[in-house]
Amino acid sequence: MTQKKISNASFAHPAEEMFAQIMDYYGIQWEYEPRTFDLEWDSEGNVTLAFTPDFFLPDQSLYIELTTLRPQLSTRKNKKMRLMNELYPDIKIKLMKRRDMRDMMVKYGLYDEAGQIQGTESQKKAS
Asked: Is 15 within the bounds of a domain?
């Protein structure tokens, strides 16, 4: 599989683009929103809730979900993560919260970018 480059993807949030840039810089293969997992169904078998993690890192067999939401607003995302773990126990998935992403950006010297996902403005963009 070839490494996907940022120019081939359209991101929903600036934090996703920054994550992809870090993966590209370090030569880590990634795929953006490659799979949707069904989580809940109605009585007729129609999917009523699904989840598409932001990234898949094929070399690690790991899905990554990024969130910039405040903890009290992330109830829906937490529910999806819980259902993922229950319904797909063999799928490895990690939730990276705003603080995790900010810390990663600072670690790699991306101070301006880290500032962009700090505070309420970044949380509004994710809503």
From this structure: yes
**Distance separating the N- and C-terminal Cα atoms of the chain:** 33
79, part of any domain: yes
pLDDT in tens, 28-53: 999 999 999 999 999 999 999 999 99
Its domain, for residue 90, covers: 6-126
Write down the pTM of the prediction: 0.74
Cα distances from 104 to residues 45, 88, 89, 124, in angstroms, run 41, 27, 27, 21
Whichever domain contains 78, its CATH number is 3.40.960.10
CA distance 74 to 89: 22
Per-residue DSSP letter, 8: G
Q: How far apart are CA 80 and CA 34, in angstroms?
A: 17
- DSSP annotation of 71 reads G
Task: Select from 120, 47, 56 the least CA-distant residue to 92.
Answer: 56
Q: Cα–Cα distance between 120 and 69 in angstroms, integer? A: 9
> How many structural domains are present in the chain?
1
